[in-house]
Write a structure and sequence with these properties.
The complex is a heterotetramer, with two copies of chain A and two copies of chain B. By secondary structure, chain A is α/β, with parallel strands linked by helices. Chain A has one domain: Thiamin diphosphate (ThDP)-binding fold, Pyr/PP domains (Rossmann fold), CATH 3.40.50.970. Chain A has ten helices and eight strands. In chain A, strands 2-1-3-4-8-7 form a six-stranded parallel beta sheet, sandwiched between helices. The longest helix of chain A is centred in the N-terminal third of the chain and has 26 residues. Chain B has two domains: 187 residues, Thiamin diphosphate (ThDP)-binding fold, Pyr/PP domains (Rossmann fold, 3-Layer(aba) Sandwich); 129 residues, Rossmann fold (3-Layer(aba) Sandwich), CATH 3.40.50.920. By secondary structure, chain B is of the alpha/beta class. Chain B has eleven helices and 14 strands. In chain B, α1 packs parallel to α6, α3 runs parallel beside α4 and α8 crosses α9. The longest helix of chain B is centred in the first third of the chain and has 18 residues. In chain B, 72% of the residues are buried. Chain B is globular, with a radius of gyration of 20 Å. Classes of the chains: A alpha/beta, B alpha/beta. The interface between B and D is large, with 56 and 56 residues. The structure holds thiamine diphosphate (TPP) (2 copies) and magnesium ion (2 copies). One magnesium ion binds next to β5 of chain A.
């Protein structure tokens, strides 16, 4: 797919999202590595291009399912940063009151319906959401984001088949970051292009350079439009890289040095910034302002969340059931 | 309310029918459930014709995705009723129930819920010779899942009443049907009657011993109680109806009176549902019991196909009467 | 794929197997419908062409995994008929002593390693057998037979991916009989050719007319040869039909009349017989003798099995563990 | 035999190493297990380098196929050791264990066997804030599967000895490791020592009460026993080591002496492993007990992420000491 030409409005929107994603990731990484934050976190650094393109292509009313590595997707969909940090830190001000954690964030108000720690298992859930959208007669689209490794799960297959069969308004986004935990993609599948898996369901599959937000946006928009107009599901494979490994603290010894160096060189964030400047449509000042805004928003959120308490022990048994009366203790 | 005699199969069909009629958000998903098949033995017969193949929807053989799709539809405000043909197949789908449905309310502090029902059936005790992969009784697993509810009706009226409660409950419910009871007839209220969960049914009052059961085990429990009358033993029989929650108040009140308890189920005895019931009774009524709480369940073996040994794998009425006789003597004896 | 020309030896082998499969199926169907036999049975009537071609293409030392609808596959692999009937009837003379049943027949001596009642779940097991063959450095090939419906299970996908990745000596045989229980294939998948699913794993996929044993044999042989020579797995889709429905007693009301009539017309058994006669290489007498032999073998087996007892109650707890000493009762 | 102090992680690595060295049919399968990763926290480190990536084999994220492939390899005479990263993922693979591995010997009358080990880990009690899908303790499910064996070691030496037994056992074994114990050090025999299944370990002799536990619960049990000395209470502590089979002779001998029992585990209390232990004890020792058998387990809730409430979901030492004090008084009281 060639590089598409996007409006500067869309590019600005994408860059805003990327800046915010990067600021969140940088802050969490720094906080965890320094011991300031005690949290589990799966960095998306390097994958911002995919999530920003997806976020920009979706409407507010569209819905999203993602994974433990989901902060960029959440931000793309518009999750308030206080909510995001509070969920990750497990504070009582979190919408889930300390009960979810990094792997399980939901933000139904912004359309984030599920993040799951079970690789692949979110995809059938997205099928159910898309089925509901179709039954409702709404023009809501559901996007589901997952990794390369997830396409080897049975859940992926069952879900893709069902979505194709029922012609559901679903966009399946595979963020192929070339690794599943510590195992490279070519150790877990023979095929070279994950998008070829679409053939097995008779749906459209495309592979894009996920580090090129404009190209990715074009593919996402086309898929979203197809879904919205009754054209059924699409599998979009976006090639990218996890620059900080699987989780914060990962030493990445299993990644060949040259591969990592190459990936650093392809970091979509500085590259996109450069493209926007070069295009002449954006000034250094404008982008700096966007970055400053992102940093300020992150700092403000962290401040609020850091000051908040952990939930009181008494809240443990709340929300197990609607009515806990007869439940075991 | 008007009643009519019907089979458990018919009662479940009627319960589904009424739920579909009442609430446009009720949605059925499962393999072969739509007409003309209407389910492999007809439980959902007529429903897709009446409510459309959109709402009574055939699925591929994709158990994980069936439950996953039900989880998603529930997130979007539907009340899905997913069918997993046999409980033996639940393992393929259980990730969605365990890791998503049962934890959703908790993990979102109540912002997202799972008004979801999973219907499945155990073929255990049907004596069809289906063999080990089609005769399991796995309700104990599901009792161990916080956030879930587990129902196992023993008769047509209860099946309809409990199914109605399940479908309109705002938490996920596993509704386990018993193949051997599909043909069992009883009088069923035709209007909407929802039987609350955690409300056991004292199906037979008695003074000397309490026999606690549910599902197909109840048949043995009642038959044993009837047989024991001749020996002057008055057995109270309790149908638990729901296994999560268990109605301990009713159980304990009965055992406090009789001072003896026998638990009967088709599930494998070791680490089965009876373990929880027995452990709880001895804990709550320590010092008040005249005999140990005895458990009768299936043997610790896969279920074989040949009729001779298949029958021997499951409990029978004389296992129950023997157990009652032992607890009447207050004698400790190994029971298996 | 065009009609291949097979040697008369292979055709004889195939016809022998088909005659035996049909005789077994006819006898079981008659016995069950009349109440003479009390048994669960999933008829393969109409699918003999596939199983006979597969059986003829495999060596004795090759291994097979199949399903509840497996009698034709078992026969193709050479299971003794007494064993087969005894397993189905649950008699104590069955190798599994009444503990298996129709859905769970194994005959390791003839290479039948597993039949399972769990749709799709046998496919990963075949992957493990094929992995063992590869690790052993043997030239053993493993075939796994399953239905169209099974290709919608996650197990199919996970197994196919693994087999492709590891380049295993596996032949995946999809007996597409157009129905899964009571649901037609086009209600459960959007794709028209199941063999297209091979693309998702970068392996060869072919669709053949399963009612043409010669064509099917050619495809099976090619797949077996590929597996044996280190060329990895193949997905063979063989189009066929279940003439007697899902299980004995199925009223087949869900099958359109015209479709059933058409399928009856395409019954591979009389058609293949006709082809052999027409070819001039087989006489009416020779084929009649083969049929008589099959019927005689079936009758002898049924007689032996009918006379046998069910296992004694005392045998129930045998074979749960190698050493049952401390196990729960 | 020479011993060396090492962590449980090191002991499991050594056990796998020795098994691979001893028998060419031992085969490891799992996600990320091969070098350079050597497992996500290094349990299998060095093994693929030593024995080849064929025998210590990385797999795709395909839990059902990992166990399925292990079943197949076992059918062909291998002794596969499959790793399912966390017990929370076992549901995805459990069909193969339940419907094939555990039933194979039975369904073939011993003609085909499953010398297969599944290694998995529970992260419950690690306090890492992983949340509800990564902190479960599901051993009760597996105790309810006839044909399977279930092992849950509490220390490095036992881990190595029980793993060796598991790998060379001719039946399928689920070997559950405890994340919170990977770093626990103890002295481990360097040579091959196989610890038989169904042989509990009396880790601390005592007279007044028996505390029965396994895995991470044992840490609480021992700490409680030590704390109770000051109150003049002498607690005997038993490490079950294997949950299927359970060594009831050792348990019953101890409780017959102490007349009091407390069962402790990290698994959810309701319908958990303790239910079977308690039900069996009251049945076998009725009339000999001075107090009800009390169970301490996790609360009936998904595990939350926040440290305050995560800790509260699991049992702690004072839950155990409180329970012991109660049974010492012989008083019945609701314990949760
Ligand atoms: C079903 C399942 N299997 C295994 C794991 C352990 N695990 C967590 S993340 C991960 C790698 C996933 O890789 P991929 O799908 O490519 O996503 P990425 O982490 O690269 O974003 C694994 C194996 C899990 N959480 N769930
Ligand atoms: C995992 C699983 N799901 C559902 C069933 C119930 N079931 C048994 S056979 C069958 C249809 C299978 O169809 P197909 O794979 O096409 O094989 P066929 O019966 O046509 O040979 C179904 C749904 C089962 N046994 N296992
Ligand atoms: Mg990845
Ligand atoms: Mg079929």
């Amino acid at each position: 797919m060639g590089v598409a030409t996007l409006s500067t409005d869309v590019q600005r929107r994408i860059y805003r999202l990327m800046a915010r994603m990067k600021a969140v990731d940088d802050r969490l990484t720094k906080g965890i590595l320094s011991g300031e934050f005690i949290a589990i976190y799966f960095s998306h650094r390097g994958q911002e291009g995919v999530a920003a393109a997806l976020g920009a292509a979706l409407r507010e009313t569209d819905q999203l399912v993602t994974t433990y590595r989901g902060a960029h997707d959440h931000i793309g969909k518009g999750i308030p940063l206080v909510d995001l940090f509070a969920e990750i830190m497990g504070k009582e001000i979190a919408p889930a009151k300390g009960k979810s954690g990094t792997m399980h964030i939901a933000s139904p108000e912004t359309g984030v319906m599920l993040s799951t720690g079970m690789v692949g298992s979110g995809i059938p859930v997205a099928v159910g959401l898309a089925l509901a959208a179709q039954l409702d007669g709404s023009d809501r689209v559901v996007a589901v984001s997952f990794g390369d490794g997830a396409t080897n799960t049975g859940a992926f297959h069952e879900a893709a088949n069902m979505a194709a069969l029922w012609n559901l308004p679903l966009v399946m986004v595979c963020q192929n970051n070339l690794y599943a935990e510590k195992t490279p993609t070519d150790h877990t599948m023979k095929i070279k292009k994950i998008s070829a898996r679409a053939t097995a369901y008779d749906i459209v599959g495309v592979t894009v350079n996920g580090n090129d937000p404009d190209e990715t946006y074009a593919a996402m928009s086309e898929a979203v439009e197809r879904a919205r107009s009754g054209g059924g599901p699409t599998l979009v494979e976006a090639l990218t890289f996890r620059l900080r490994g699987h989780a914060i603290g990962d030493d990445m010894v299993y990644i060949p040095k040259e591969q990592l160096a190459e990936a650093e060189k392809n970091d979509p964030y500085p590259a996109y910034r450069q493209r926007l400047i070069s295009s002449g449509a954006f000034s250094e000042d404008e982008l700096a302002a966007i970055e400053a805004e992102a940093t300020a928003a992150v700092n403000a959120a962290v401040k609020t969340v850091a000051a908040a308490e952990f939930p009181a022990v008494e809240t443990l048994m709340e929300h197990v059931y609607a009515n806990p009366e007869k439940a075991p203790a | 309310m008007q009643e009519q005699e019907m089979t458990m199969l018919g009662a479940i069909n009627l319960g589904l029918d009424q739920a579909l009629a009442k609430d446009g958000k009720v949605l059925l998903l499962g393999e072969d459930i739509a007409d003309p098949a209407g389910g492999i033995i007809g439980v959902t017969k007529g429903l897709s014709t009446k409510y459309g193949a959109d709402r009574v929807r055939d699925t591929p053989i994709s158990e994980a995705a069936i439950l996953g799709a039900a989880v998603g539809a529930a997130l979007a405000g539907y009340r899905p009723v997913a069918e997993i043909m046999f409980v033996d197949l639940m393992p393929i789908a259980i990730d969605q129930l365990l890791n998503h449905a049962a934890k959703m309310r908790f993990m979102t502090a109540g912002r997202l819920t799972q008004p979801l029902t999973v219907r499945t059936a155990t073929l255990g005790g049907m004596g069809m010779g289906n063999g080990a992969t089609h005769n399991q009784t796995l309700e104990a697993w599901f009792m161990h899942i916080p956030g879930l509810k587990v129902v196992m009706p023993s008769n047509a009226a209860d099946a309809k009443g409990l199914l109605t409660t399940a479908i309109f409950d705002d938490d996920p419910v596993l509704f386990i049907e018993t193949g051997a009871l599909y043909g069992a007839r009883s009088s069923v209220p035709l209007g909407e009657v929802a039987i609350p969960f955690g409300q056991a049914n004292v199906v037979r009052p008695g003074e000397d011993v309490t026999i606690i059961s549910y599902g197909l085990g109840l048949t043995q429990a009642v038959a044993a109680a009837e047989a024991l009358v001749a020996e002057g033993i008055s057995a109270e029989v309790i149908d638990l109806r729901t296994l999560l929650p268990v109605d301990f108040p009713t159980v304990l009140e009965s055992v406090a009176k009789t001072r003896r308890a026998v638990v009967v189920h088709y599930a494998t005895r070791f680490a089965g549902p009876g373990a929880e019931i027995a452990a709880a009774i001895q804990e709550e009524l320590f010092g008040q019991l005249a005999a140990p709480v005895v458990r009768i369940g299936a043997r610790f073996t896969p279920v074989p196909q040949a009729p001779t040994i298949e029958a021997a794998a499951y409990p029978n009425v004389s296992d129950v009467t023997d157990a009652v006789r032992r607890v009447m003597k207050g004698v400790r004896e190994v029971v298996s």
